[in-house]
Amino acid sequence: MLNIEHAVLSKHGSSQGVTSASWLNSSDTVVAGMGKQLIRGYDLRDNPDASPIFTISTKAVHGITSDPFAIQRFASFAEDGVIKVWDTRKISEAILTVNSDFRFGIGGIAWCNARNGVLSGFGKESPIVRLWETDSVCFNAQMGIDSIKSTGESKSQFDLVQNSVEVKNTVVYRTRSGTLNI
């Protein structure tokens, strides 16, 4: 019999239940839906005292999923079917709110790994899958001009400007629905 001892590396939010959690891509930050009304972000490399680096008051604490094309962006949903997209550079409010229109609520959401800006979701007790294609309208602080970050933009292009771009607004420009045949 193999005896392996387990050691706790760190504890975060120990007095609250975790409803969902996700690593932000390419970072040491974990984002967790806590209880029924908070999302908290924890930087695990520079945070020995276990305090969150940000806290969001929201009911959209379920199904947290990080965007593979933008390390600072993640999405979550609420029990009433509302999806919120968050950007850690503008954490005071969601950069996008989408009503999923699923009759019995959302079963899960995920970002597309192949195309930038595509978020998918499926409903509880529903064979329907929806895709929301998004674009972000941004302001480049260095150049002082408004620009549109295209969904076709590569990850490396986004990484080059992520620190100099302030997100102004994110919009859904196309919605698609399909049926799962199981």
What does this structure look like?
It is a single chain. This protein is mainly β. The protein has one domain: Methylamine Dehydrogenase, Chain H (7 Propeller), CATH 2.130.10.10. Helix content is 4%, strand content 48%. Strands 9, 10, 11, 12 and 13 form a five-stranded antiparallel beta sheet that branches. Strand 11 and strand 12 form a beta hairpin. The protein is globular, with a radius of gyration of 18 Å. The protein starts with 17 loop residues before the first strand and ends with a strand.
List the secondary-structure elements in sequence, H or E. Answer: EEEEEEEEEEEEHE
Mean pLDDT over all positions:
78
Number of domains: 1
Name the helicity range. Answer: under 10%
Considering the protein shown, what is the CATH homologous superfamily? YVTN repeat-like/Quinoprotein amine dehydrogenase
Q: What is the percentage of strand-forming residues? A: over 45%
Shape: globular
Unreliable stretches covering 5 or more consecutive residues: 144-163
- How many E strands? 13
CATH fold field value: Methylamine Dehydrogenase, Chain H
Q: State the end-to-end distance.
A: 42 Å
Could you name the CATH class? Mainly Beta
Category from helices, strands and their pairing: mainly beta
CATH architecture classification name: 7 Propeller
Major beta sheet summary: 5 strands, antiparallel
Radius of gyration: 18 Å
In DSSP terms (H or I, runs of 4 or more residues), the helix count works out at: 1
GO cellular component, one term: cytoplasm
Pfam families: MIOS_WD40 (PF21720)
InterPro entries: MIOS/Sea4, WD40/YVTN_repeat-like_dom_sf, WD40_repeat_dom_sf
